[in-house]
């Protein structure tokens, strides 16, 4: 339990050991589930809860904050890493009401089997008085579920933003101390969770800009007492601007696709392009996702397996497509033994991207002179496109 401001306490849990989220997202630095108590002169609100496994920590912290009565549990988001202890808190504080919007209420009934009469439903812009403290609710849909909203604590100028602006990092720093480290964690988090919703996020950032924010208190990672740091970072990530970067993600079975990768990487570096190279068999999905935030071009390399792409390459294409980065150009290269439909298969998996396809290079067996020339041509085509965008001189 830590004090954020007078009568505002952080009562969530740091999960130092968790290494996978949603059975999908690697967590190299663990994470935290931030929850807060706001104690007004008349009423007390718990802002979000924690992942079910951390419920004992939340309860211990509430007790340590000397809270005998909870009147409201503000549930910003239905996902269980924030709502998962709500039923247990209701058992301990039976007079409490869950304050949330209609969409989140329906989710919490579906997901947690909470009784209908335990809710107070709020609308966008509504406020809730705790006596000498007032909460205002701001709906911020699609960061990253449709029901998500934020709470603005008027007197203390704190924006409780739930997943919005969060970062998966277990840290003893209540407030951000190492901005470089948090920038990387928050960017990775944005890429994995928020990137498909860039347009909605743009609107939501405008919506919160009316507040004179002193503290952003997200539900994962440290709190921001210099909010412009993370708001400016988000503005950059959601912009349409791309950088002179190529993400090369490849899977090679017997070395031919790896040889093509090495050649293409060098060809691009020689031409002044920044390359982010990932061997899909050993790479961290979060690092690949983060690299997609800025890259102008994505190139997928693959061996041929059963007449199609290597499953790791197909999986990468599927993930890139789902994350909808602002990538402007895509291409494919690889090697085959006797044939296949790799290009058709992979390009079919990338339908969400509004990207131009640069001529793929598929070669029979190990790459030879004419194949390397084709890779030079691919590098030249990428360079020409980057020059057209003005991101490469
Ligand atoms: Fe941190 Fe969408 O839950």
Offer a quick outline of the entry.
With 393 residues, this protein is of the alpha/beta class.
Through-space gap between termini: 53 Å
Work out the helicity level. Answer: 25-40%
Uncertain regions: pLDDT < 50 for 5+ in a row?
none
Supply the number of structural domains.
Answer: 2
Bound ligands, each once:
MU-OXO-diiron
CATH-defined superfamily of the largest domain: Ribonuclease Z/Hydroxyacylglutathione hydrolase-like
Relative strand content: 25-35%
Can you tell me the CATH class of the largest domain?
Answer: Alpha Beta
What characterizes the major β-sheet? Answer: 7 strands, mixed
Named CATH architecture of the largest domain: 4-Layer Sandwich
* Count of β-strands: 24
- Number of alpha- plus pi-helical segments: 12
Strand order of the largest sheet: 1-2-7-8-9-10-11
The CATH topology of the largest domain is given as Metallo-beta-lactamase, Chain A
Average of the residue pLDDT scores:
97
Radius of gyration from the alpha-carbon trace, in angstroms = 24 Å
List keywords for this structure.
393 residues, alpha/beta, Metallo-beta-lactamase, Chain A, Rossmann fold, 2 domains, 7-stranded mixed β-sheet, 12 helices, 25% strand, binds MU-OXO-diiron
